[in-house]
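Below is how a single chain appears once it has passed through the pipeline. First comes the sequence as given, then the structure the pipeline wrote out for it. We keep one example in the README because the format questions we get most often are answered faster by looking than by reading.
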Amino acid sequence: MDEQQNVTNVSTESKEFLQMQQVLEILRDIQENERKEMEYAKKQSRFAVLISCICLFLVVLVSVAALTLVPKANILLRNTNGIVAQANNVLVDANKVLDNLDSVTTDLAAVDIDNLFKNVDSLVVQSQTSMTDAMKRIESIDFEGLNKAISDLETIVEPMARLFRR
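Resulting structure:
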C-alpha cells in the first residue's frame, strides 16, 4: 500500500508539477504579451508625439502663411478694384469712340467722293498754274541788276552808319 500511495503521491505530484509548468508557461506567455504590449504602447506614444509635432508644424505653417498672404491678398484686391474701375472707364471711352465712329461713318457715307476728287483735281491744276506763273515771275527777275542795286545801297548806307555810330 505504501507503494500505491507512493504512486498516487507521485502521480499527484506529477500532476501538480505539470499544472505548475502550465501555470509557469501561461505566466511566461502573459509576461511576453505584456512586454509586446509595452513595446506597442511605446510605439503608439512615439507615433502620437510625431503626429502632435506634425500638427503643430502645420498650425505654425498655416499661421505664417496667413500672416504673410492676407496682407498681400488685400493689396491685390485693392489693385484689382482699381484695375476694374480703370477698365470700366476704358469701356465708357470705347463706347464714346464707337459712337463717334458711327457718326463719322454716316458723314462719310453722305459725302460725294467723285465730286470731292474732282474738286481736289481742280485745286491741283490751279496750284500747278499758280506755281508756273510764280516760276515765270521769278525767272524774269534781273538778279544782276538787283545785286548792283544792293551794292549801291550798301555804298551809300555804310558812311551814314559810321556817322551815326560816333
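Helices lie at 2-110, 113-139, 143-165.

See the next section for the split statistics.
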